[in-house]
Amino acid sequence: MSAQPEHAPVPPTPAAAAQLLAQLRLSTRAATWVPAFEQDWSRALEDSRHSYSLSPLHDVIRTWQARLEALPAVTEFLASGRDDADGVDLADALDGRR
Predict the structure, then answer these.
(1) Of 34, 84, 93, 35, nearest to 63 (Cα)?
(2) 74 falls within a domain
(3) Residue 88 within any structural domain of the chain
(4) Mean pLDDT for the stretch of residues 59-83
(5) Cα–Cα distance, 41 to 46 (Å, whole number)
(6) Domain for residue 21, yes or no?
(7) pLDDT recorded at residue 92
(8) For the chain, how many structural domains are there in total?
(9) 16-42: pLDDT as tens digits
(10) Domain range spanning residue 59?
């Protein structure tokens, strides 16, 4: 019998941050996303040092993976010229995925 709930997310692999950074560097938004990821990662490292938990690091990886996964759909939407005034904040959308 497992002590973890069935809906617990699988933790990212140890190399996930490096792989994610490599993907971000290849994306069309690399100029803004790479510095933003590095800032989020630094903040999460500091939080992890104080809390002795890897959760902040895992959260950063999951958030940025979701951004990369959504990039093609977002790019297509923006190119279509549709009105995005009623958009939803990414943080609100991701809360349901965790």
Answers:
(1) 93
(2) yes
(3) no
(4) 89
(5) 9
(6) no
(7) 76
(8) 1
(9) 999 999 999 999 899 999 999 999 999
(10) 53-80
